[in-house]
Design a protein that fits this description.
Radius of gyration: 13 Å
Structural class: alpha+beta
Oligomer: single chain
Distance between the termini: 21 Å
Shape: globular
Largest sheet: 3 strands, antiparallel
């Protein structure tokens, strides 16, 4: 099985046509979701999230879209 950082690098490369400068796993919190901070070539950062629970992922995206509909500021889901 591929390491999550390798998968994140592949997805990042597909979405941004470049490779990340750095990927750091953030401390685990109360959920089973794993977060990573990705540093881009211009030194800006984005956050990647991973969770094996497909149902929870769908809820995460639905809630994000619901909040956006009401102009509540939430991070953009890219892929």
């Amino acid at each position: 099985m591929k390491a999550l950082s390798s998968i994140i690098t592949e997805v990042f490369s597909l979405l941004f046509s470049s490779t990340p400068l750095n990927i750091i796993q953030l401390p685990i919190s109360a959920s089973s979701r794993i977060y990573f901070r990705i540093t881009m070539a211009d030194n800006s950062t984005i956050i990647a999230a991973h969770n094996n629970n497909i149902r929870e992922n769908k809820s995460f995206i639905e809630l994000t879209n619901h909040f956006l509909k009401y102009n509540i500021h939430v991070p953009k889901v890219i892929g």
